[in-house]
Design a protein that fits this description.
With 468 residues, the protein is an all-alpha fold. 62% of the residues lie in helices and 1% in strands. It contains 21 helices and 2 strands. It has a two-stranded parallel sheet with strand order 1-2. 43% of the residues are buried. The N terminus and C terminus are likely disordered.
Length: 468
Amino acid sequence: MNNDDMQPGGPDESSGPNFEELQRLLQNMLSGQQDAELDPTVLAKAAGISADPAVLGALFSTLRGAMSNPSDKIDWSVARRTALDAAGGDAGADAGPANRAFPLASLWLDEATELGPVSDSPRTVNRIEWVQRSIDTWISLAEPVAESVSQALMNSMSTQMPEEMAAALQQATPMLRSVGGALFAVQLGSIVGQLSGEVVSAGDIGIPLFEGAGYEGGALLPSGIAKFAEGLDQDLEAVTLYLAVRELAHARLFRHTKWLRLHLLTAITDYARGIHIDTDRIEEFSRDLDPSQPDQIQEILASGALFPPKTPSQEAAHERLETMLALIEGWVDIVTEDATSRLPGAGAIAEMVRRRRATGGPGERAFAALAGLELRPRRLREAAAMWRAVVDRGGIATRDGLWSHPDIMPTAEEIDAPDLLLTRIGLLGDGTPESDPFDDELRKLLSGENSADGPGSTSDSSGDSPAT
């Protein structure tokens, strides 16, 4: 990530907060210098927030509210307003290709999966609608981290504040918590608004973000598809049809696998609850940083270096999350591959989708820096190969039947070694159940195959009949 990408207005303008600068600003406020330092532009730069005038105005209003009416809870309505402001408009996007693609995509999917169509019809949405339908999910994912960030700022300040100012800090604690939460909420809103300009569908991130009746059938963003197709030597109609197949496959999977959404979001929440900010690392970095080189701060924040090593419970939650994301995306990949086999250029479009997912967009990277959580599957190709092996040996119904209950889902070990899964579900290379060695020997004994003179022998070597 280079410095050019991080300039205000650039694609990565919301990479993460500068904890040292926030701490300095808050200390100055406590010491009576707030009139000189409470500049929205300065605070926006320290918090990694866009310098857009609308965002700055919202930030200033939010901070004044946080100071005048402090609260222990974060006002997440700030994130919603900021996200809607940052999303902007895309009224000029043509929804025609998407609406034409949905019926054909559904027909092709009927041949590629046992999971039938969803009762809700697929639809097109604009950036504003995407924000409105997804913001509550983003808030639920980020809330545990916001609490950790606010607590980290308070802990760091309390250890470095002069003793004569300890009383002032104690009195200002509610206000500072409220300010810290407001900064986090504004930044989250900026990131979600930015993401609305990168995604192409409701399921693009890999998790079901939309909430509310009528949106379970899948959704495409025509503006995002047009942006994605700009770098491809492919017809827009073909690109839209391919992405429609992917989105409808994703929607069918989550609609018919009723336990999946809760299972996935629980793994994310379990991981996020264990996140905390390493204040010792903050102090260590603050001693070594050169204020004249802001790119140092940006690199540290983007690398996630302020998040300490994962705890054992976090490691377990992270492994469950990565495994499930890989299984979901791997299944969607091969179902889409089979369904679009007659679509010209499908292979090239699929490769671009894989590359895009592997690198992530600026907004996705910003969320990873903000929350310390990546939502990209790391073993996607292995998971897709495993699903393909199941189809080759057991058919589509066997593959899709594995989603019926979480206890029979493939494990991380089975992704890496598909033969383990094939053995567990009773499949061999020819697709027949594996025979039991004891049954084989018993069959041979009953048929006389184990006698000394071969099958059907009834006499011993002396010619006498054997004793009964």
